[in-house]
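Q: I have 407 residues here and want to know how they pack in 3D. Can you give me a structure?
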Amino acid sequence: MRRFHPICLVFALLLLSGCGAPRTEPPGWDWEVLAPPVGAGSALPHLATAPDGSVLLSWVEPDDAGGHRLRWARWQGEGWTPARTIAAGDDWFVNWADFPAIAAREDGALVAHYLQKNGPSPYAYDVRVTQSADGVRWRPAVTPHTDGTQTEHGFVSIVPWTADRVLLTWLDGRHTLGGGHEAHGARGAMTIRAALLDADGRLHEEAVLDARTCDCCQTAAVRTSSGAVVAYRDRSETEVRDISIVRYRDGRWSEPVPVHRDGWQIAGCPVNGPALDAAGEAVVLAWFTAAGDVPHVRVAFSADEGERWSLPVDVDEGAPLGRVDVVRLPDGSAVVSWMEQVDGRAEIRLRRVAPDGTPSPSQAVATTAAARSSGFPRLARTAKHLFVAWTEAGEAPVVRVMRAALR
């Protein structure tokens, strides 16, 4: 990997140019509860903003046949559309960290993915991607990887690319035969791969982005002015698992580059991937690290599509579990979400950070279990509102959603 150079004063000035003065006072958001049309046992929410400014919510819930179904609804104006089923099955891989997602192409058509078992091993499953022009009728699902191995494939990111294409990134375990989430001594390494998927389900520009990555941390990907940035947890030969990025530009993928050398050496996967958001050339990245056995949630900014990054800012309150997400606001600041351990439970906390690194005080928006069953809270924003979704864990889990007006 290329050596990462320190950030200079000139770059700091670039970060601030072209932006209005970001707010750094306490967020003081007033939260409104939005009761989504979810069923009993709902979990694993995902949020996405559509081109028309509406917010898409997907989730998983048990069905009457003993399997699972992937459902979705749209927040449009001041209410939810009726919930609709994307897909259902009794052979799915349903996991607290490797969860389905929904996105909208630039033409408004919807794209969603779920995970389907393909063999007897607990971690033998395929990515399945389906598309819909109207959100009611969904096309037969396709698989973006063509290896046919009974290994792990998941942790998918879906990025609108053109009017009729999306960019997909995923972790691909075709070389890890016999491995899985907990089998870090597998025969081969986990890889991260990418492809473009068109409206007819055909794959284009299939690529290996990194031939050795962490086994079970989420990927993140965003569109930028001239390409894309993909972030993921890397894995060195000495088991250092820091966050790296690759960039797509002029039809080519770059070599992997570490964003910041945290130096987190850990023998197993921490199940804590990064999060990205972008607007034009501006990119923001959030991630979790526990280098030196000191946990932190960090955020860094780039003004040039991920070529150079600011020094990271720690946003946690001292006991973070991670499970981060991030959105970029119109003034260039970022809102980072994470889970903070408090008295044996977990608070979902948000903090706003200006692109010069100035943080506002954090705000706790909800409390849930610190267990894996609470999953990963998700963020989305529109021009006027910030949305947060999470799983309220318990004997009867349920997906919760709130929003707050941006100020």
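Q: Anything worth noting?
A: The chain has one domain: 32-405. The two ends are 41 Å apart (CA to CA).
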